[in-house]
Specification:
Distance between the termini: 39 Å
Oligomer: single chain
Number of helices: 0
Strand content: over 45%
Structural class: mainly beta
Order of helices and strands: EEEEEEEEEEE
Largest sheet: 7 strands, mixed
Number of strands: 11
């Protein structure tokens, strides 16, 4: 059974930072690309950061410079650090594992709520 379990969400002050972790089980973690997505109320899910199985990280423009994704293959974990948070960063943050093998294979975590508020 595949599980992606996020941790580290919660209440963050404006201007503060978040650090999320996701631990995977039930998959060969080393061969999966990993990512973080988020979904705010009333909005579509959007990409926050991705990191390939070989460790190449990519960010959309709104995260570039204030976010860092990293992975620890020994711990089967992917982490997200994001700084300078504002209210618009309030969302449920989801961990994703994916790879292509004659079709896309996609797994999601249950999500971690991050609320940016004073």
């Amino acid at each position: 059974q595949v599980q992606l379990v996020e941790s580290g969400g919660g209440l963050v002050q404006p201007g503060g930072s978040l650090r999320l972790s996701c631990v995977a089980s039930g998959i060969n973690f080393n061969i999966y690309d990993m990512g973080w997505y988020r979904q705010a109320p009333g909005k579509e899910r959007e990409l926050v950061a991705t990191i390939t199985s070989s460790g190449v990280a990519k960010y959309p423009d709104y995260v570039e410079g204030r976010g860092t994704i990293s992975r620890d293959n020994n711990k089967k974990a992917v982490n997200l650090q994001m700084n300078s948070l504002q209210s618009e960063d309030t969302a449920v943050y989801y961990c994703n594992a994916n790879r292509y093998d004659r079709g896309w294979i996609d797994y999601w975590g249950q999500g971690a709520q991050v609320t940016v508020s004073s």
